[in-house]
Design a protein that fits this description.
This protein is α/β, with parallel strands linked by helices. An eight-stranded parallel barrel has the order 1-2-3-4-5-6-7-8, surrounded by five helices. The chain has a seven-stranded mixed beta sheet with strand order 18-19-20-17-16-21-22, with helices on both faces. Strands 13-12-11-14-15 form a five-stranded parallel beta sheet, with helices on both faces. About 50% of the residues are buried.
Length: about 1000
């Protein structure tokens, strides 16, 4: 069976889950059983170091809680004292030790009072935001940081069973002696692999752990009665994603099978931890391959397991799929049901991708319903599954016990180490209940991301752990039945993020086969239009028609013009696969880039429609005040006339449509010149706009070389404005040509490139930096004006970060953009390839290559260039933009502000990336930077229309920013109409008011 699509209407899914639970649960009995547990926990709360106690003192919704969480996430990895002091000052400086941010009463616990006092005292020794300190203060700051580091380490010890598997096994042995019915599933901490070296290191860690666990089991056992191991597939392969399916099956499955054989020989539980939604289908394919082999070679082993997430809208179908898989192969699986740990990330991904619905439930109680429906299905399949229920919710536990008693099925409960201890202290008073503790193992440095995830997951106001620690939440409220449907989504759907007037574009989920197949089918049927080349005479004739069309188009109501753009947007949305195929074929785009570009074009059309209705509405001045009596003053905008729109080949649809739609909707006619390399995509867009209602004379396209058609357009005396995106050199030529013309002064909107930099300080997370660099520098083969060109790494973290980037680059696939698994496609043509090759040769002479060039996978594809990076000695040595997958790297030390000064001195000003966990530093550097777009702790590409208006300054363009609120007025002229309303005999309105 195949799983349904992940993006289904939430209410439909919940109705189905509720129907499946009809007659299954007596919730009044559930609440009666859980009430004594809750009352006992509140009467005898968890120790002060437990998570629930921590969250009670420092809820993550408070400044203190957020500050401590941020410190826990970053402090231990900071290598130098100065950055550690700055980070600690930045975060503790935000804490409200007076208790006004979440604490309305004096803390009741001794640890609470002590901690608040310690934070207040620490702030006295830490520098201000500007970092200025004397010697005494500096010595005090170092002491505070040392104490804070130790505090974070102690906090970590409450959530990690041991820093090595040997320590963890020693601790678990003590627990076994005190609680014989408690087992462990060890989790070797770490991030997902970015490199092959990472994957091999994690593999060795898992192998060692399995051997150690096996050696520690001194009695005969079954997997259900022994300790086990949980592993992450994304830790064992650097490209664990659906697009790399073939490679994953060939390379990852043998690695996991080697672990399965170890576990089978020792008769231990080995569980595949859950991954994100977009990896689910891939995980099931991996699991199917392993189960098939288990059935053939270890049919008696019943220890192989999967973690299943109840917060996914297709979770019940997932459970049914796993049951069917087990029965098909005649094996029994151990399955851990969890609620899910990536909820916020799944919501953000769905919003960014423009999915029709969320793949996870938006209400906690809907997740609770789903969890119980999945549990019922698991308990009903004892021949196929040994259920393992992971939860800290007393109501859920009581419901599970009730269902299990009715079914007679064996099962175990699970909790996280360091969490839920007080609840399970009460639950496990019943000796027949088994419990397994999910126990992280590893150095505290690797614990941090795990700890923050647990804090977010359990510290949310809606979580049971949070509410259990809140005495204001009554027991009846805490144990209220979740078994009812909430009729609306808990969040605006991705389509509704920008309000009812501007629907968000709908994207494509490339992890779903249905969506991939639609794109591949479109490529088989899409036809790239043939485009005739225009001459200078054609320009003159087109201009004559365009000028003649100006008066009528300008007089047309703005609502009509906006409606035309909306019709075009709807048509483009319907034809998204077709236009993606055109971009792949002519623009040499990879599929993800093609989807993103079509969506951007749709967004431009809808945004410009909304903006035009706003900015072109007459404004009575001086609004909102009455002004001088006896007159009215109205400001209104109208189009300038005929615009020349000259767009580039790197975004042949989005930038083309963005320029053209802005000019059209403001009442201008347009002569559009697309790039010579991509006229077919542009012509398809022009035809779509004509079909939507734009008259043919109002929008005309002229294809040809820049030195003939482009020059003729710019030089034509009737041109009222020029919108240009391209190189700085060509923009300056256009500027001079316009200035040399007689007649009106013609505005130029120019968006050009830049030497875009990213500054990384020692507090940044290396994995996050690696991801951001690969996306920013090498996505689209570096052929974006916003692409990263210069990486400025602090010297204390440079070696490790560069090694990670080099290893991750090695895993990228360079080849045919029409393949779903291609990461880096070709440069646009031979000229572009030659220019980049020449610049690479210069860097080989004057810089240091950070990794060797490699041969692309698809040698038959012309103009391929694998990503490269070169280290140079100083920022000033970077003289020009390299428009390809080539990155230059500079190491820095000292003052980050000086780095920004050096970047500013280059004269470009398009994008800047800042990677730091010091919030005040990020704000200060952003204010100092002379660039149009600053991105903090993310990549520097993919600006979203209306959210991240895009454009630069200096050598990077004139502004105003595309996709922003100041763009459309540049296409207009303003007119003020003043009417003397007293001319016909006096001020009637004034006199009517009386004296």
């Amino acid at each position: 069976m195949r799983l349904p699509a992940p993006d289904r209407p939430e209410t439909d899914v919940v109705r189905h889950r509720l129907h499946s639970l009809e007659g299954t649960l007596d919730w009044a009995a559930v609440a009666r059983q859980a009430r004594p547990w809750v009352e006992a926990v509140r009467a005898h709360p968890a120790p002060f170091w437990a998570l629930e106690s921590l969250l009670k003192e420092f809820p993550i919704s408070s400044k203190e809680g957020l500050a401590l969480m941020r410190l826990a996430e970053a402090l231990l990895r900071v290598p130098d004292a100065d950055t550690a002091i700055a980070l600690t000052a930045d975060q503790l400086g935000r804490a409200d030790v007076a208790g006004t941010a979440g604490h309305t009463r004096q803390s009741e616990s001794a640890v609470g009072r002590l901690t608040h006092a310690a934070v207040a005292l620490s702030k006295k020794f830490l520098p201000d935001a500007d970092g200025s300190t004397g010697l005494a203060a500096r010595l005090g700051a170092r002491a505070v940081v040392t104490a804070t580091v130790r505090a974070v380490q102690l906090l970590g010890q409450q959530f990690v069973l041991g820093e090595s598997i040997a320590q963890a096994l020693a601790q678990s042995a003590r627990t076994h002696r005190a609680q014989p019915h408690v087992r462990f599933s060890f989790d070797m901490l770490g991030e997902g692999a970015r490199t092959e070296d990472d994957a091999q290191r994690y593999l060795a860690s898992y192998e060692h752990a399995l051997d150690a666990i096996a050696a520690s089991q001194r009695e005969a056992h079954t997997p259900a009665l022994a300790d086990g191991l949980s592993i992450k597939l994304s830790a064992l392969h650097p490209r664990y994603e659906e697009a790399q399916h073939e490679r994953v099956m060939a390379e990852l499955v043998p690695r996991v099978w080697a672990l399965c054989e170890r576990a089978a020989r020792a008769d231990l539980n080995l569980t595949l931890d859950a991954e994100e939604v977009d990896r689910l289908a891939l995980s099931l394919d991996v699991a199917e391959a392993l189960v098939e082999r288990i059935a053939a070679e270890h049919p008696q082993w019943q220890g192989f397991g999967l973690a299943l997430q109840a917060y996914q809208t297709r979770s019940l179908e997932l459970v049914e799929h796993v049951i069917a898989m087990a029965r098909r192969h005649g094996v029994k699986l151990m399955c851990r049901l969890v609620k899910g740990a990536y909820w916020d990330a799944e919501i953000k991904r769905a919003q960014e991708a423009g999915l029709p619905h969320y793949p996870v439930f938006t209400h906690k109680q809907h997740t609770d319903i789903s969890y119980l429906a999945c549990a019922r299905a698991m308990l009903a399949a004892p021949d196929a599954l040994f259920p393992q229920f992971a939860t800290h919710n007393a109501g859920t536990i009581a419901a599970l016990l009730q269902m299990a008693e009715r079914s007679g099925s064996r099962f175990e409960l699970q909790r996280l180490h360091g969490m839920g201890e007080a609840v399970y202290r009460e639950v496990l008073r019943e000796p027949l209940i088994s419990c397994r503790v999910y126990a992280p193992v590893g150095p505290h440095r690797d614990l941090l991301a795990y700890l923050v995830r647990r804090l977010l997951e359990n510290g949310a106001n809606s979580s049971f752990v949070h509410q259990l620690a809140d005495p204001a939440c009554g027991v009846d409220e805490l144990l209220r039945s979740p078994l009812h449907l909430l009729p609306t989504s808990g969040l605006p759907l991705p389509r509704d993020l920008f309000g009812p007037a501007r629907p968000n574009s709908v994207g494509v989920d490339l992890s779903v086969r249905r969506d991939r197949d639609a794109l591949l089918h479109a490529r088989q049927t899409a036809v790239l239009p043939a485009v005739a080349e225009a001459s200078a005479n054609d320009v003159a004739a087109a201009a004559q028609r365009s000028l003649a069309a100006v008066p009528a188009w300008r007089r047309s109501p703005v609502t009509q013009r906006a409606a035309t753009l909306r019709h075009a947007a709807d048509a483009l949305q319907t034809r998204l696969p077709e236009f993606c195929a055109l971009l792949v074929d002519e623009g040499r785009k990879t599929w993800p880039d093609a989807v993103a570009e079509v969506r951007e074009a749709i967004d431009f059309l809808r945004y410009h429609a909304v903006e035009a209705e706003r900015v072109m509405a007459p404004v009575n001045l001086p609004a909102p005040w009455p002004g001088v009596t006896g007159e009215t003053n109205t400001l209104r905008l109208h189009g300038r006339g005929m615009w020349a729109c000259i767009s580039p080949w790197n975004f042949p649809l989005a930038i083309f449509v963005g320029q053209v739609s802005a000019a059209l909707v403001t009442g201008n006619t347009v002569l559009a010149k697309p790039a010579e390399q991509t006229p077919g995509v542009a012509l398809a867009a022009v035809r779509l706009l004509h079909d939507a209602g734009v008259p043919t004379d109002v929008l005309q396209m002229l294809h040809g070389p820049g030195d003939t058609v482009g020059d003729a357009l710019v030089a034509h005396p009737g041109v009222a404005g020029v919108a240009f995106t391209g190189s700085t050199a060509v923009a300056k030529l256009i500027q001079r040509a316009l200035a040399a013309k007689d007649g009106p002064i013609v505005p130029l909107i120019a968006e050009t490139g830049g030497i875009n930099a990213m500054l990384v300080d020692p507090s940044a997370l290396p994995e996050q930096v690696c991801d951001a660099v690969l996306q920013s520098a090498f996505r689209s083969a570096g052929q974006r004006c916003s692409a990263l060109r210069l990486l400025c790494l602090h010297e204390d973290i440079a070696e490790r970060t560069l090694a990670m980037i080099a290893g991750a680059v090695k895993e990228l696939r360079v080849g045919d953009p029409a393949r779903i698994d291609t990461d880096v496609g070709p440069l646009i043509d031979a000229e572009a390839h030659g220019n980049v090759a020449a610049q690479i040769e210069r860097l080989r002479r004057h810089g240091r290559a950070l990794w060797p060039d490699r041969i692309p996978q698809d040698l038959a594809v012309p103009h391929l260039q694998a990503p490269l990076a070169f280290e140079v000695k100083r920022i000033a040595a970077v003289k020009e933009e390299i428009f390809g997958p080539v990155l230059q790297v500079v190491r820095w030390s000292g003052d980050a502000a000086q780095v920004i000064d050096d970047i500013n001195a280059l004269g470009y000003g398009l994008t800047l990336g800042i990677q730091t966990r010091i919030d005040s530093r990020a704000q200060a550097l952003a204010s100092q930077a002379q660039v149009g777009n600053v991105y903090v702790n993310r990549n520097t590409v993919g600006a979203v229309v209306g959210l991240q208006p895009f454009g630069g300054e200096g050598l990077s363009g004139t502004g105003p920013k595309a996709g922003g609120p100041h763009y459309l007025p540049r296409f207009c002229v303003e007119q003020t109409v003043t009417i003397n309303t007293t001319a016909a005999g006096g001020n009637v309105a004034l006199m009517a008011g009386g004296v």
